[in-house]
Design goal:
The structure is a homodimer of 225-residue chains. Chain A is α/β, with parallel strands linked by helices. Chain A has ten helices and ten strands. In chain A, 44% of the residues lie in helices and 18% in strands. The longest helix of chain A has 19 residues. The interface between A and B is large, with 89 and 89 residues. The structure holds a DNA duplex (22 and 22 nucleotides).
Chain lengths: 225, 225
DNA sequence: CCATGTGAAAGCGTTCACAGCG
DNA sequence: CGCTGTGAACGCTTTCACATGG
């Protein structure tokens, strides 16, 4: 069991390593990995130490070996089927986002309440009617879902997804979801992110922003998005 | 200066209060606010105590008064001009997202490298060529920007935005940005969020997921994006 | 009596500093 | 000698528990 904060940084390291491999870089020291990932070098070493000892003292980490280990620990050696609910602007952006499929997350089913969209193909997914949600998700054995609906229906959709067997949810709707404790939920709330920026911008206008006092990214969320 | 963790929760409380006001609820106790926001009641009281003493013992908080105070402290009593760079799927979703303008964040200028998009209207923003970025941002006095470009150009765009006077950035591109320390940066990285879910899903498959051990939202990010 | 506001305690996450090893 | 791996220190966040006050 890795600390959650570490889990959030591992994909970042993975991204850096993948980039370095494309440039045929064979080893990487914690300092460089830290710089490229925008974190402290001690942090990198501590994070990686949770995975085991894959570095060589005096040298650094074998780029390819470390990439494999990160990939394995994150469970990225397998592919995941993902459902998407809501084919509005955001939903369509998500279904077409290559960053998901590149990493083995395949949106295989989409759902929308608009009859005009049902039956059409969106990226790699066919649009289904909302009424089919439970059946399709259960039949396909889908465990992960993206919610990109209006806030008002998000809780109901989440309940139905969970009832159909989904165990991990990524919610883009600006609302709090109440779910059983064994369900993994992550929230991407763009309006909140902007409001946080607004707060610091507001402080700055008031002339009170301490130097370096940014509500910066890598500690707060991953942007969390 | 509020703690950053508190700043991230205030917009949530604001949302709850706004909902309650629509239902003409006059007061709200910390327990109820906590439940509706998905956090601990002590957390709510501690957070609100940073703003001052706006509650009444034995009663709770005056919904309207508290909403005003939150709004004021977050700097939401003023409007902000926002620039958007990148009008791909995600950029178009962002420019049409009502959650921003509802809260006083107005996307007044958009930029894209595709000549076919330049000159067209996207939501409330006119699409400009990339070459105009510096000039338009400086002329309009824009302090906040959304980056929804491919990862490869995000750093260059960020540098140009900062050079033009932008001081707060919300980056959706899956890459780390290096910026001067006085610039506020927040990251929304959907691929990372999915990979975090993948990790816990992977654990679950391995039968090692502790009960209640979800990589849940409201502490880690936020969800954050 | 009930809910706020707050010290104090507990829990995490980050950073430091250095021993240890290739 | 250089960089990893890690115990220990530090700081931030959350939670508890209760005194305080309408």
């Amino acid at each position: 069991m890795l600390p959650e904060a570490t889990v959030r940084r591992l994909p970042l390291y993975l991204r850096v390593l993948t980039g370095a491999l494309e440039e045929h870089q064979v080893t990487m020291a914690s300092d460089e990995l830290a710089n490229r990932a925008g974190v402290n070098a001690a942090q990198v070493r501590k994070d990686l130490s949770y995975l085991g000892s894959y570095g060589t003292r005096g040298v650094g980490y074998d780029t390819e070996l470390l990439r494999q280990q990160l990939s394995r620990q994150l469970g990225l050696t397998q592919d995941y089927k993902v459902a998407l609910v809501g084919l509005g602007n955001l939903g369509q952006a998500l279904v077409n986002y290559r960053g998901f499929s590149q990493r083995g997350f395949h949106v295989v089913a989409a759902f929308d309440s608009d009859p005009a969209k049902v039956g059409r193909q969106f990226g790699s997914a066919t649009a289904h009617a909302m009424s089919e949600l439970g059946e399709v998700v259960a039949r396909e054995g889908i465990a992960m879902a993206l919610i990109a609906t209006p806030a008002g229906v998000a809780q109901d959709i989440a309940d139905r997804l969970v009832a159909a067997g989904v165990t991990s949810l990524l919610n883009f709707a600006p609302t709090v979801l109440n779910l059983p404790p064994d369900i993994c939920l992550r929230q991407v709330d763009m309006a909140i992110e902007l409001q946080v920026l607004g707060y610091y911008e507001h402080l700055r206008a008031a002339g009170t922003l301490a130097e370096g006092g940014n509500g910066a990214s890598r500690r707060g969320q991953a942007a969390r998005a």
